């Protein structure tokens, strides 16, 4: 029966090509615009680590004197080291990023600028980073301030150009670091773990142990966000300065551990108040947001992207209203045909279903057009100067959603016209023809 209704729908659509083209165009424009903006919105507001984000948390501890309003986005060196050495989480990682000049130790080798993350060894398993060769440095390397490094795949290929670089040395500043691992290029979008960087830019190229970076002043780990308060004496030696500059993430795999860690942060703050380091009076100023809460707290998704998404769906609604009007006009023009079918025994349900099949056929054609328009829209975004431009890709999920939304939209637009068509009085229409 469906094949019969589909054949009737195709015949009907071919009978009036201009009206059919207008309906397909209306659906296609609405779907194309909404899917383009939806893809960008999903890219910018999506979960950067869907399998892990619910277990990753960003401890916030405020050491500033009274008068501060929002909680700081970073930690002082003293607080970061105290939390890290307490080992109250399943995993924890300190980090600070910077651009560093790197080259091979051979004479005449040219240096390249690599974005370097000084961090601790738990970073890699905590964030699920995939290794192609080797592995992370060990806790012994970390405590011994070993000069070891992990490269991203693209940085590894850029430096060694097809040669085997595992176990070889690269030079940072005046020091040689041994390559112990190579990771698959890791680029969560957005860069939730280090919001000092462009939220959707390229990933980190080089990873070195955080204790080693602080032991070697000539590495020139600079360029990070720095927020000092109180009396500071030297911003090149930040270990004992009242300055906020370090990121710190922890992994907690159960709600009980999350609650326990929050209590630990509160007790830690009270202890620092008692010692006179935290001079404000009142309850501890702490927080423990997870990944998505952290992104929302920092307003990572641009407000104009949200606005564009609403505008696009509003445009889709207008297109659906136009399609509804066109379908209504089309079905009411066929009152004689519908009356003959009813007189020959077709039920209202059958007429209703026939009209919906015709509307769905328009939706499929509109979906094809919408998919093409969405592809063109994303192509335009990829050639724009936006930092997330190269991430705007048409994936399988977008493909499926495009057709599902197109068919659902066309069926929604066809409900009223189909209902009106199936309630045409056949006797009255046949009498007047």
TrEMBL record:
Q: Please list every transmembrane segment annotated in the UniProt record, as residue ranges.
A: 21-44, 310-331, 351-376, 396-419
Instruction: Cite the InterPro entries for this sequence.
Output: ABC3_permease_C, MacB_PCD, Macrolide_Exporter_MacB
Q: Where in the cell is it found?
A: Cell membrane
Q: Which GO terms describe its cellular component?
A: plasma membrane
Looking up Pfam families in the UniProt record yields: FtsX, MacB_PCD
Every copy of the MacB-like periplasmic core domain together lies at 20-215
Where's the ABC3 transporter permease C-terminal domain? 311-426
Q: How does the protein associate with the membrane?
A: Multi-pass membrane protein
* UniProt keywords, alphabetically: Cell membrane, Membrane, Transmembrane, Transmembrane helix
Name assigned to this protein:
FtsX-like permease family protein
What is the species of this protein? Rhodanobacter glycinis
Q: Name one GO molecular function term.
A: transmembrane transporter activity
List, alphabetically, the PANTHER family matched. Answer: ABC-TYPE MACROLIDE FAMILY EXPORT SYSTEM PERMEASE COMPONENT 2, MEMBRANE COMPONENT OF TRANSPORTER-RELATED
Q: What is its main location?
A: membrane
